[in-house]
């Protein structure tokens, strides 16, 4: 029990075996999701950090990977989202994340920007929004985030990390 209290005091990630029955899964109304800042780059690799803020007055938990939907789509092509790390944000295993009121969790989006350069750089390949669905069992809603990136250049594939504690995803 001491381990759980220490972990909750510092807002750390805890394993399911130590989760307190009094801390419940987050719900849609407790959280806000946003792009933390513009893309970071390293040698043709791009990373976008997403922030998940607990704006409520009660502690809650999240575990797993977010689901992402890119808008607008490129005609009959869709963006494949895989659960992985990348050059910018490293892979992390899903763990139960305890988010206290006013605290943050995060996840990272990774992609390459040097593929399919024969495809258009026009509006049909530029995402304007990413709709984020958090892994909630009882309150599934989408959060709209504004971000511009050319998903044709990503080879129509992006990687997303598991949700983790803190305002910045683990770097790769």
Model description:
The chain has 172 residues and is mostly beta strands. It has one domain (2-165): Immunoglobulin-like (Sandwich). 5% of the residues lie in helices and 41% in strands. The chain has 1 helix and 14 strands; from the N terminus they run αββββββββββββββ. It has one helix spanning 2-10; strands at residues 13-14, 24-25, 31-35, 40-42, 45-54, 60-62, 67-71, 80-83, 96-99, 104-112, 126-133, 142-150, 157-160, 164-165. The strands form 3 sheets. Strands 3, 4, 5, 8, 10, 13 and 14 form a 7-stranded mixed β-sheet that branches. A 4-stranded mixed β-sheet has the order 1-9-6-2, with helices on one face. Strand 4 and strand 5 (45-54) form a beta hairpin. The longest helix is centred in the first third of the chain and has 9 residues, at 2-10. It is globular, with a radius of gyration of 17 Å. The two termini are 33 Å apart. The model is unreliable at 1-18 (pLDDT under 50).
Features:
single chain, 172 residues, mainly beta, Immunoglobulin-like, 7-stranded mixed β-sheet, 4-stranded mixed β-sheet, 1 helix, 14 strands, 5% helix, 41% strand, disordered N terminus
Our measurement of the CA-to-CA distance between the termini, rounded to an integer number of angstroms, reads 33 Å
Mean pLDDT, to the nearest integer, reads 79
Count the beta strands.
Answer: 14
Total number of distinct structural domains? 1
Instruction: Give the CATH class.
Output: Mainly Beta
Order of helices and strands: HEEEEEEEEEEEEEE
Helix content: under 10%
Alpha-carbon Rg, integer: 17 Å
Main beta sheet, described? 7 strands, mixed
Shape: globular
